[in-house]
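[#protein-structures] MJ: dropping DUF4328 domain-containing protein here for a structure pass
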Amino acid sequence: MLCSTCRLRPPVTDDGRCPLCAGPAGAAAPMPPAPAFFAPQQYLRSPEGLAKAVVVLLAVMIVADLLAVAAGLNTHRVLAAGVANDFATYDEEAATFADNLYGAASSFQTFVGLAIAVVFIIWFRRVRLNAEVFDPSMQSMRPGWAVGAWFIPIANWVLPRRIAGGIWTASAQTNTDGSWRTVPATVMNLWWGAWVCSQILSQYTARRYWAAEQPQEILDTTFLLVATDAIDIAAAVLAILFVRKLTRMQRERAALGVYPLSTPGLAERASWGRAH
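AK: finished. structure tokens for DUF4328 domain-containing protein:
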């Protein structure tokens, strides 16, 4: 038997409503043992293994970015020495080595970045599906958008953060007294801001790099490449913190049961979300 109002959760009140739909009035009603799912074919699946893989790949990306920063600074040094004396004593061998070194570092970054994109999106979809079990009323977009939102130009600077916010809220651990605990989203916001800045600066720098013709323009663009790699390092560090935090939140939330506990105003917000 399911709730007479939402048809999603088991009833706990005499009139057949679940704790979420009953609101404060149903807070004193006994909670039934929480099964591993609340609707057919909707199960909690641990994101721990995927999270570890994402963290490892992000750590490798940090190493790749550090190598790119070192290679970029070396290229900048060689070019700056040539520009300083109008290339009168320009070291062609050192320039070739610097160019090859930076090319290798860039290829390493690209390879690791592709691996991160695949594994991170799989992890992101997993935690989104878990959030659907925890509390679907907190999700403003359907689960498929956890994958598709990343592939829409410009919109992918906004939509994944919106989805992540719903996952974060639904995964927040409830307090032991049955009240809802709001977990500050600082690490998620910092990660997202750093990632968007990295993407925007990367695209801007790529256009400047391919358009540069004069030695000074190339020199300035090289400095921008180094700055982009530095911001990417910050984004990767914050991404590690975000992935670890959200995965831990879901583990704690699952240990308390999959059903949202009753808290003042939550049932009204859930009903309004379904109605609109």
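MJ: nice. Residues 26-41, 261-276 have pLDDT under 50 and may be disordered.
AK: one more thing. The two ends are 26 Å apart (CA to CA).
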